[in-house]
Structures are given as C-alpha cells and as structure tokens.
Amino acid sequence: MGPVAVAVTGANRGIGLYTARWLADRGASVVLLCRDAASGEEARASLHRTDRHRVVACDLSEPDSVRAAAEDVGQGAPLSGLVNNAAVLPEQRVIGPLGIELQMAVNHLGHFQLTRLLLPRLRESAAARVVTVTSRSHRGPAVDLGDPGFEARRYRRLVAYQQSKMANVAFSLALARRLEGSTVASVAVHPGVYGTHLLGGWTGLGPLVRLAVPGPKRGGRWVGRLTVERGRTSETLNGAYFEKGDPRKPAPAALDIDHQERLWQWSERVLDLSPWPPPAGGESGEGPTRE
C-alpha cells in the first residue's frame, strides 16, 4: 500500500493498539489519539517505523480536548482513514463534562464530534474511510433520546453500553447518506469478541477473561483491512456494517432513518455543532442494507 495517514482513537491498547500495529506494518503513518499521552507513547514505541507515527492527546468526553486534537491532526497530511475505536464501560453511572452519561459521551458523542471536525481533511484524500468500531451487542432498542443519561431509568451499564453501540451504528449509517457521491466512505464494524480490558469490565472477570478468549490481534486486522485495503470501493463500502470480515444486516432500530436523524440532530445540539441536514428525501423509513 502507498503511504497513507490514519487516525485511531484508543490506540494505546486492545483492538485500537493492534489496529495501529497492523496499519504501521503496512506502511501507514498512524496518529494515535489517546486520553493518556504517556500510554500512547508506549504504544507508538511498539509500532514498525516508530518515527512515522505520532501521539495526540484526546479525551473524547471533553469537547475542548476533541477540538484541540482535531486541530492538531488537521495540521498533518490529508487523512486516508479515521478509526473511531475507543470505548468505556464504567461500573457505575458517571456523568461527563457535557452532563451526559459517560458511555454515550465517549463511545458516541466524542467520535461524532471528532468525525465532523476531521471530515475536511478526509475529503482531501482520493479515497478515505471512517470506520466506526461497534459491537454485535448493539442489537436491541433504539437510543432513548428522552432519557439518554439514565436519569429516569435505573442505570445498568450493559444497557448503557448497548445504547452507545446502537448510536455508533445509527451514526455510521446517517453519515454514509451524507457522504454519498464523495470520496469518503462510512462503515461500521463489530470486530469480534476478544480478551481486552473492556471485555474484562463487561464480564466482571478482569484479567481472567484473557484465559478464555483470544487476544485482540485478529480484531485489529479486521478493522485495519476495512480502513485501508482497496479491494472494495468506497461506493460498495459506504453504509455497510460488518461483523469481522463479513457484511451483515444491523439491528432494525439502527436502520430506521427517523431514529438516525433524531440521534444526529440531538448530537449536534448537545455538542453545539452547526446542522448538517440529510440528503433530500432521506428523512424517514428504513435505510438501505448492504449484504
């Protein structure tokens, strides 16, 4: 592959780290977007051709941090890829700086803002991709925009996680409609279940979970391939949802365009971003499915 620049959130560990390694091994310059810059530097040191890569501090729960990170990334070469990978799964309900429950703030809103801010750089590439890492656990109800912070409902962290992963898929599909006809493709992927820090939090077994499931190297491969391999065109990838390397149909709620648009507009309001309306005629019904 030719030299490309790819930004990866949460690139200091788990699937994000192995995605960064897979990309670096194939000649990409990787921008590691990490909340903890010191941990990010340790990850960078493990990449092939360390001098090609750099770390940018980015706390996805904090809009000012996301804005500063996007400005930093935007000063480099045009981006060929953005991997929205980072995720949190706190045991208790945590309210982030925006006043939003932390899983929704980090897993969805931070990536929504980052993507919006980096799209001008992505559009400068001949072909670019926004790959949003989600989970098969997104399958369930639509995002409850009447109570996204679990103020009226009892907080259950796995329900909150499902809601944030549903938001990932709905966002990816809504973005795809807005990118139709451009050089940028939006794709969502469930890379599989691996022995990551997040899975340890999900099961409550911590490091013990790594004894029962594979490590995240294979997940990084799936994500990396969707980000840079050119066997599939932007036209065929845009709006797709994958489980590992296979295209699948996401949950019905994720396909509902009205739900996608309400989530999109809510996200813009919370983040105080200028509206980006949907294409004409794309405001209701079920979106296209690529299988």
Describe the main β-sheet briefly: 8 strands, mixed
Q: For the largest beta sheet, what order do the strands appear in spatially?
A: 3-2-1-4-5-6-7-8
Straight-line distance between termini? 26 Å
The counted number of beta strands is 8
Average pLDDT for all residues: 89
Order of SSEs, N→C? EHEHEHEHEHEHHHEEHH
Task: Determine the number of helices (DSSP H or I, runs of at least 4 residues).
Answer: 10
Any idea what the shape is?
Answer: globular
Helix share, percent: 40-55%
Radius of gyration based on Cα positions: 17 Å
Which structural category do the helix and sheet elements fall into? alpha/beta
Beta content:
5-15%
Low-confidence stretches: 283-291
Mind explaining what this structure looks like?
By secondary structure, the protein is of the alpha/beta class. The chain has helices at residues 14-25, 37-45, 63-74, 102-123, 157-179, 197-203, 217-228, 234-237, 252-255, 257-271; strands spanning 5-9, 29-34, 54-57, 81-84, 128-133, 184-190, 240-243, 246-247. An eight-stranded mixed sheet has the order 3-2-1-4-5-6-7-8, with helices on both faces. 48% of the residues are buried. Mean pLDDT is 89; it is low at 283-291.
Task: Name a few traits of the molecule.
disordered C terminus, 8 strands, 291 residues, alpha/beta, 10 helices, eight-stranded mixed β-sheet
Note the topology.
Elements: E1 5-9, H1 14-25, E2 29-34, H2 37-45, E3 54-57, H3 63-74, E4 81-84, H4 102-123, E5 128-133, H5 157-179, E6 184-190, H6 197-203, H7 217-228, H8 234-237, E7 240-243, E8 246-247, H9 252-255, H10 257-271
Parallel strand pairs: 1-2, 1-4, 2-3, 4-5, 5-6, 6-7
Antiparallel strand pairs: 7-8
